[in-house]
Amino acid sequence: MITIRTVASRRDLKKFIAFPNKLFKDVPSYIPALNFDERNLLTDKNPALEHCSRELFLAERDGMIVGRVAAIINSSVNEHWNKKSVRFGWFDFIEDYEVFTALLDKVAEYGRTHGMTEIEGPFGFTDMDKECWAIDNFDARQNTSTLYNPEYYVKFIERAGYEIKCKWQQYVMPANQPVPDKVARLNTLIMEKYHLHLVKTKRRKDLIPYAWQFFHAINDSFKDLYDFVPMTEKEIKVYIDEYFPFVNMDFVQFVVDENDKLVGFGLSIPDLTKAYKKANGRLFPFGWYYILRALKKFDTIDLLLNGVLPEWQKRGVHSIYYSDMNVSAIKHNVHTAYTNPQIIGNEAVKIWETQYNTTPLMQRAVFGKAL
Q1: Residue 203: which residues within 8 A CB-CB, separation 6 or more?
Q2: Which residues of the chain carry a pLDDT beneath 70?
């Protein structure tokens, strides 16, 4: 018999966070999240809870945890997109269809109780959280910012009558490909014509004003993407405080105009997958050491975020920051870059497919149905 119960204590939350680490401990491509980050996301420390409600559930059988799920209602997303949707996230379960349906039914029940008319996922609270399941190439290398899922997750959700609502594509590419002379000359002409330049500084504190612009630029650039909703000022501050102290300055490509306004951006981070794997969710006693070492010595990068303001698109701005990234990759002996998921059909995917030496890595999707 399966029992579904609400996470109601710190001990329950600890079990909720630890479950996938036990479930996928023998899976080479699974990357454990940091427990510290997960606690901050799932408790009242998360500023997204000012416009989100949530309930966390554990599934048990014979006293053993066999699954987990978060039911999330993002009122800002629903208002922005004129919908009444409950999201499922942090959804992991053993290969048992009965466990899967028991957990998903609980999310649906939570949604109906709060007046929702549809269910979709996997999603987090915001687009900065992990989202979307792989639908092919399930054993491919993961980013620290992407979800791992085995193939049976997709088989189960299709069996339950859910349909794909949106698809994403990830790519892998050589990061150290030299910038062709023709491209370098064209970039110079573009910068001269539009009075643009790349921000170059060796001090992280000098990046902070641009960091605020960076997240506001994400809000403007991604506003038409599926289920995206602009980040709040509190959310932006959390992301700046958490991530910018650790960026490698050579892999921050900010393109600004003559008024020092950000018009395009590329942000990459050193590959931390092996470090996260060794840390196994724990910063102490050795997790910090693994991560700090990976930040200093790396040959692979993750292309975390990139974009161009809508009014600057189709002017070649993307070529400026990608070319500068190539130069930095050569400088640091980086040979491979992995992209984050890109929504299929948007401008970024067209650029990857037509202008760069990329190889498709995997497709991802979110699923949904009416309640």
Answers
A1: none
A2: 346-356
According to the model, what pLDDT value does residue 229 have? 85
Question: In the numeric block, which tokens belong to residue 11?
Answer: 């001990």
The CATH number that domain 173-364 falls under is: 3.40.630.30
User: The tokens of 327 are what?
Assistant: 């130069």
pLDDT at site 238 = 87
Q: Is the pTM of this model over 0.90?
A: yes
Question: CATH 3.40.630.30 region(s) of the chain?
Answer: 2-167, 173-364
pLDDT in the model for residue 263: 94
Contact (CB, 8 A) for 316 and 186: yes
Between CA 305 and CA 126 the distance in angstroms is 15
Query: b/e per residue, 160-194, with b = 16+ CB within 10 A?
Result: eebebbbbbbbbbbebbbebeeebeeebeebbeeb
**Predicted local confidence at residue 180, as pLDDT:** 80
Looking at residue 349, its pLDDT comes to 60
Q: Which CATH entry fits the domain spanning 2-167: 3.40.50.2000, 3.90.1170.50, 3.40.140.10, 3.40.630.30? A: 3.40.630.30
